[in-house]
Structures are given as C-alpha cells and as structure tokens.
Amino acid sequence: MASVRRRSQIIGLSLLAIDRAADESLRQQIYVRVRDAIVRGEMRAGFRLPSTRAVAKELTVSRNTVGDVFAQLVAEGYLVARHGSGTYVAPNAIALSARAAPLRGSSWERASSRGKLLAAINTEERAFGKQPLPFQPGIPDLEHFPFDTWSRIAARLMRRPRAELVSYGDPAGHRPLREVIAAELRSRKGIACSDEQIVVVGGTQQALDLVCRLALDPGDEVWIEEPSSRSVRAAFIGAGVTMVPVPVDGEGLDVARGRELAPRARLAHVTSAHQWPLGVTMSRARREEVLRWADESDAWIVEDEYDGVVRYDGMRPETLRALDRSDRVIYTGSFSTTTFPGLRIGFLIAPPPLVGAFIAAKAVADRQTSSFDQAILAEFIYDGHYHRHRARMQAIYAERQARLIERLRELAGIEIAPTASGLHIVVPLPPSTDDRALSLRAQDAGVIAPPLSQQYLTSPARRGLLLGFGVAGLAAIERAVPPLARCLAQVAQRPRALRPLPRAARELPG
Description:
By secondary structure, this protein is an alpha/beta fold. The chain has helices spanning 2-14, 26-39, 52-59, 63-75, 93-98, 113-126, 147-159, 163-166, 175-189, 204-215, 230-239, 255-261, 284-297, 320-323, 355-366, 371-382, 385-412, 435-444, 474-491; strands at residues 79-82, 86-89, 198-201, 221-226, 242-249, 252-253, 267-270, 300-305, 329-334, 346-349, 424-428, 464-468. The strands form 3 sheets. It has an 8-stranded mixed β-sheet with strand order 3-10-9-8-7-4-5-6, sandwiched between helices. It has a two-stranded antiparallel ribbon with strand order 1-2. Strands 11-12 form a two-stranded antiparallel sheet.
C-alpha cells in the first residue's frame, strides 16, 4: 500500500503545475490540470490521486482550494472518493472525456483517415478497459493460477539460459512450443497440421493484424459477425477494408444473409466455438455452408477460438479448420484465458502456401514473441501443469456461472440459460432500455458490465449486459450481484419489464 501511495504522489504531483502570473485563478488552474491529465490518459481509470494535503503543500495553496477542486471533479464524474482510501480516477472518466472539447494544441488533423478512425474506436474501447473487477468479460481467474510453479520453471531456465532464449530467436516461434501446440490441436481438435504451420504471435489480436496484412487489400469487403468484438473491428479499420456486418442467429453466422450482402467478400471472421458476445456455437450445417461459400468465392475464413477451449457441456464441436479441405481457414488461438492475459502468447495455423509469408510478416511486425516466455509455457505444458490447471479451472468456472445465474434469478428476477462455453453470460434487457447508461450506473456501483448494444455496428441493436464470471470468485459474486440488481431495478419500467424471454428467444443468450 505504501508503494501505491508513493507512486500516486510522485506521478500525480508531476502532472500539476500552476502559474501565479496567469489570469486564471489558482483553483481554475488546478481543475484544468487534473481534468486534462485524465482526458489525455496521463491519469488512467483507477489511478489514485495524491492527497489534498500533499497537493496543497506541493503547490503552496490552501488545502480547501484543492478539496473544492476534487469535489467538483467528483461531482462531474471524473473522480470517485472512497472513504478511508482516497480519491481515484473514475472507471467511466474516459467516456466523459471523449465527449469533452478537444484539448488545446490538438493535432488529430495530421493523422491519416484510418488513424483517426483507429483513435476513435480505441478511445471508446478504453471506456470499459480490461480492469480485473466483477464482472469484466474476457479476463480469467488470476488467483488460482500456479504462479509458484511458473516461477520455478522460469528460474530453472534462467539459471543457465540457452542462447536462443536470451538472444534473437525464430520469428515463427520457439520450436518446442510450436510442436506441443500442433500436437494439442491434432489430439483435441482433430486438426491435421504440422508444427511448421504454427506461428506464435502476441495474442489473437496480432494474429488478425497479420492476416489483414497478407490476405486483404484496402477496400476489400469482409464479413464480420453482428454483433462482434470492437477490437476485431479495430483491426479491420486499420486495414482499410469495408466491414459487412452479417447477423448471427441461433446457429451462428447467417451465411445466406452474408451472400446477399456481399457475395464476393474476400474474408469472413467467425468465432465458431463461442460467438462473441452472444455465446452461440456455430452448427455443423453452418460450418459446411460457410466453407462452401469460401470455396465458391475464393475467400478466406479466420476462425477465432478466443475462449472456445473452456466448455461445460462435454461437447467438442468440430472446427472449421478440421473440416476445411481447401486450405481456406486460418485458425487462431490464444493462451490468455487458460493461463493469464499478461503472457500475450497466441498462435495461428498458416495455410501451407502462406507459411513463409506469415513468418516474414511476423518478423517485420515485432521480430519475435519473447522466446523466454515461450520456453516457460512449453515446459509448463510438457510437464502436465497446463492441463491440470485447465481442468481445475473448468470446474471452478462452471460453479461460478451457476452461482451467478442463481443470484440473478433470486435478486433481479431474471432467468438466464447457462452458456455452454466461455467465461461470460448475457443479461437480456427490454428493447427500450438504455443499456449504455445502465452500464455506466453499474460502474459507479463498482460493477463492470459492458452494454451489449455497443457490440453492434447496425441498428436495431439488442439490449443487454455482458457479465464475466472468470475474474469474479464466489465471494465477489455475492458482493457484486446486489448492487447490480439494484441498478437493474432502477431502469425497470414496470414490475415485469425484465421477465424471462420466451423459449424461442432464449436460443441466443442476450
């Protein structure tokens, strides 16, 4: 705690300065300095500000003046005050700052058209960040990971490190890791591939970036699922392509609709095992249909199994890559949900004709993913720790999902069908609900629940909240559901406004 206080004081005070010769009052100067630091991202969500006493002493001003400034910023939503703990940048401060007037001296006009689009979507994405708080989707449990085992492997490898682990390595990845990934895909997914086709990348986001570089030209049409991940959309914006939102129904991507909208699209991006964010598993019929379309249109398919490895129904749906007979599917995977997100190790299976091109693109992008981290992961898998951890966490996640659904039913009167895969559920809301406003209200209550409507590009967007149970233990669920239920009650138009969906509608959670 002392180190956190020292960090906030050193960083926070360095961002504040006043000019006693300026026309603005001292109070106004302090207000502008703090607000602008938040808008610029110099003070991020959750940042602990120095105490009013420390700021007053540093600037030689009245402590009451600093207290008034902090109180105004709290009232405006930029800061939150926690009794006995301090003052922090609010979780939704970036969303507020995105609507604020541009800062003086802004040079956004010098960015490219794609750069401006990227900046805009990135700012919006950061509004919900990746804070490890209930119920942030996309984050696994971090407390149960065997970091002691991981650190022992790291210490053993670093004691007398091999040259390839501490020098430049193969851009394609650490050979033992590529070999075990290929073996895992053959045995668990039925995917016929060699380790030569495996390219280790910095997560599935980099995999998609490399795909865009190699498979697409600016202006190409790309099918994306509707709804879909905003980070996926950002990658396609960066490639300068034309995104074609294709609706998702109870069987997954609506291929027939995609043919109507853009029959000659160059690529389709699908989350087949666990569709983000609705949770649908693509049916076998749809898998065969999208493969036929790719053959007929000479198109690519990116199959993104971002968290499909976590399943609760005992089923192992056959992947598009396993069904592919024409080398049209580029399969991507990640270890972020089965280990820890900070590891930043993912992989892709390159079609044989493009193996060399993908390795070259990886080398140009960042030369290589950390060989040392790859070596630790490879040993972690070979020694059996990875599979034991994954099996243990699957049971823990299943229990958490059941508890979360149970408490939502008891406290909010909402019936939710359990998801067969992944680490989040969708709370359905009536079409008239402003789920973005509700999400911000939940954040003020200490609960992260991104709005479903923000995952859509087109209208009308379905309304709901995404609740991740990966990062939320049973105790956290018990603490976080009551304030969330109170937020839900505040937006209910009538007692039965959040009644369970009809059976047919529940085919799609959300």
